[in-house]
Amino acid sequence: MRFERRAHPSRALTILAPICAILLALLLAGGLIAIAGANPLKAYRLILTGAFGSRLGLSETLTRTTPLILTGLAAAVAFRARLWNIGAEGQFYLGALAVPAFCMLPLVSSLPGPILIPLCLMAGAVAGMVLLLLPLGLRLKFGVDEVVTTLLLNFVAVLFVSLMIEGPMKDPMAFGWPQSVPVPDAAILPKLMDRARLHAGLPLALAVAVAVWWVQARSVFGMRSRAVGLNPRAAAFAGVPLGRTLVAVACLSGGLAGLAGAVEVMGVKAYVTTDLSPNYGYSGIVIAMLANLNPLAVIAAALFSAVMFVGADSMSRALSIPSYIADVTVALSLLTMLVAIFLAQYRIRR
Amino acid sequence: MSVLFDILASVGMWEAVLRIATPLILGTLGVLLCERVGVLNLGIEGIMTFGAMIGWLTVYGGGDLWTGLLVAAAAGAMFGLLHALLTVPLGLSQHVTGLGITLFAASFSYYVFRLAVPTASSPPTIEPFRPLAVPFLSDLPFLGPVLFTQTAPTYLALVLVAAIAWGLYRTPLGLAVRMAGENPHALDAQGVDPILLRIGAIMAGSALMGMAGAFLTTAAFNSFFPTMVQGRGWICVALVVFASWRPERALLGALLFAFFDAFQLRLQTVVDGVPYQLFLMLPYLLSILALVLMARRARVPQALMQPYRRGER
Prior knowledge:
heterodimer, A: mainly alpha, 72% helix, 2% strand
């Protein structure tokens, strides 16, 4: 048995493959739910009603989709250029921490919202960028593989956040809880729904996704970053500046992850803790792969993950199934998606 | 200065070095076996988590400690098989598949753990491996407690280093393993199927990763809790580069790393005014430093991350 690349993968197959992959992942996770002694169909119905069935559920789902779109984009743009940024988690945290840190500067907190909000978002993005430029620098200068360094820096970043919120950025009004000073009211993103957490971060994330899609598909930079990913030597021969393109990709990717952190802290929590992110950075990798690195498909993949996470929370309360089933399903769907994309591109020959 | 000397002279610290090093030795050997046949295995972090969970759960459910280790190794091998099937015959991206395995194995272990132990405010404990004094040798001053009163899995890990080093350089199978990572086409021409060999080596390496995780819950601690692996898997991936893909240097790297870890743990308690987070960052920063020092010098297996398809280049 061997595999042969299809010359022209059919359109139907390319569209059908991801759907089959998700269904297979749901089927496998359904098996795990059945083993735990619950009816999988009932569980999935509860997940759907939990995520969409009420105004509050819908708000939670969309609130959760917002950072996932941004971290998904962060991974997608990096992976396109074969820059293995596995550090979105750490970049998210630094991006979040940058917002209260920036607002602590003299004069900044008295700025009016329309000026302060974009500045805070930028501060978050820059913090994320810096954390990714570090390992990229090590790769370009010393030939250190960035996979391991970005992974290790995630732990360093969270410890740094912990250090800051227990030290110079500690909120004195928090009764000794380790949390950062709050973000001033002027920097809080406007709410989109009454008495619900959904905030202006969602339209922002959607706009960013479209912008990233445009940059990837239509700009010289997008073409170069794809070329660097597909074949760095050929790209270099064709005159693509390798180092500079990678630096630009790293700025975009780290910036998006940092932006995710800033949006989360300005939209939802208003202060930083070390449990701000339920693995948004790592989920972003899955989402990027589920979307096959397509920035617009990232939106759908992020929504799928958010539905699983929010829905599983309410399902687990009703059926006493551990809510970790959501993480299991999403991780499984990554693996099934990889196989599905492969089968859409190759045919099996005996 | 005398504080530093006191720490360095204390038996307790040197005793801890081998204990801290054991999961790193096992994990690094695991990564090494996978990469020697040309496959990156980023599943290690999740496989270690699952090994820690299933090893603990086996003992908690009434199995004995060695059964726990064995079950963890078997579970590791199964995740290894999954990783191998996706990356070797299918040739999927080794980075992404490995991360997928990590995310799946980790979340699956939390799921199983929560099913088995539904409500527990404090994690339930088991009776872990006791230190095993080697007759006579353990009576030696200083060296006795440091080297010869460790738990049994630590001795096993040391034996495995020797066994793998010997197997890799002194046996035909070892030669084939090394060839699978350097030049699988030549191996195929010799009549050995690189695909099967790669799958086998990845399973063996992943079994070691499972054991590395189980050591954490059955010897180093006595209970399981989520996120307990704490990046040790990633550190092992870094240590393999530091070791230049050689088992004996992997042992050295793990010991060196464990020494710094044991040292910073004790330093934390005596040094005032330095935030504890800075000490906790050290292991990760040291790993990055090790990578920077060795990246250009290390001899990377030539076919690392290159899928093998017969008749294709």
